[in-house]
Amino acid sequence: MNTTRFSKVQPMTPPPQQRRGVFYNAADVLSKNPGALSDADLRFFEHVDLIYRTMCSILYNYVPTSGHPGGSISSGRIVESLLFRILDYDFSSPDRKDADIISYAAGHKAMGLYAFWALRNELVQTGCSVIGNKTLMPEPSRQLRLEDLLGFRRNPTNETPLFKQYHAKALDGHPTCATPFIRIATGASGVGVPASLGLAMGALDVFRDDPPWVHMIEGEGGMTPGRVHEALAAAATAQLSNAVLHVDWNQASIDSNRVCGENGAPGDYVQWNPVDLCLLHDWNVILVPDGLDFSQIAVAQELALSIDNDQPTAVVYRTKKGWKYGIEGRESHGAGHKFCSEGFYKSLAEYETTFGMTFPRFDGKGSPAQIEEKYFESLMVIRQTLQKQSDLTRTAAEKILSAKERLDSRKRVQRSNAPDLSVLYQNGISSRLLPEELKL
Length: 440
What we know:
single chain; six-stranded parallel β-sheet; globular
């Protein structure tokens, strides 16, 4: 076939499709609206993040060497801002139906979830005594304590002595509903986003006028499965306006440091980036060009709640996997420092210098019980630090109290004919009692 007649035909940019979703750059918004956080708030969040990152390092080391430190660390600042500034929820009552929800669609970041849940528990518990309010804490069975971290990636039959002594919870490698504040189990890539959007749809259906917000934590790698694309399209068409997807875009996976196409270079996995993908599916998108900047994070998350065009919103944070851990990028995806190595102890140095504390050293040789003992001693350094940081714990408790007061003031009401699933568990359900409708 003669194709020379097309030699002078120039490619064109296709006409844009008009969509309902809108786009913002958080850096630009912040420049026009400075002061998203006070100096005191910035100090608070920087200290909380330092403790959190150190806990992730400790968990990976003493499990031993299990979990995903890189993605847990890069998403930490996103979650910290959500839990202490954005969500309206009642820490004392994890199962309140009217509370905002955070869902770890990226189930492999479970290390981060457990570390932060335990840190929040310790911050609030210590802060309660500082502010003189003992009503903020949930009942013991609905807490996740520092002691429960002894159960990270352990099953209930674990026989190490401290696990048994403190009745530590067995914490799965991916989040399950056994963990307080977790509504659905998440795990493999592609599972968490559709299921979390189901939560948003249910919340919107039950609380029609003022539905709880559902905040989903995901990475760009977890957005590559096709089921996520279908779910994004469905959510935009259904106008799940109470859904906010927080994307930890660190560009790193198990075997690549360029998952998506970026800056003119092709991606190793896909040729879109999270901004492109969400805009394509008619979501609002807020790009946070520096996803480690608490001020940009804060203004983006506030903005996400203010957009009133009935579309779901994605906040895309450009981050660095394994930031300040000592191992960054794909090398920190499901991997980290060798057990009790020099690299591990270097990852603790910033904490030790900042707070004037010292973590125990261990030569890495010993029985499971001896390893558990050093692990526990390290967790107790966290507790001792917080007991000395009254300003930090006071601020944490005050912020958690404010979250409850905001939730109470909203007075969210279920629609009168909303389904009541609790009736399914009444009247003594038994596998031995076969309903008449099911009898042959």
